[in-house]
Sequence to fold (102 residues):
Amino acid sequence: MNKIDFVRLEEILYCKSNGRYTIFFLVGNKELVSSINLGKYENLLDSDFFYRVHKSYIVNLMHVSSISRKPEVYCNMVNGTLVPIAKRRLKRLFKFLDIERS
Fold:
């Protein structure tokens, strides 16, 4: 480790697990790789804005433009990326967002 990057929370679009590493996808098509696993970040990130939608993904809800449900369920991020939502986490996500499923 030869540097520490400071990132404002609002700049984080989503985080993706890559084994023992976490990749941060940031505003402006920037990426940062951390040697800390996603589970640690799940506990560190503000739970009012960040939600673990999949075993491999945490999204910043401020950067989700919509949720699509065909054929699988995805968060459509403002940068056009589709982040999968695990079926077992979908009901909790909708409850967290205080929306009804139809």
Observations:
- The beta strands are 12-18, 21-26, 30-34, 50-54, 57-60, 64-68, 74-77, 82-84.
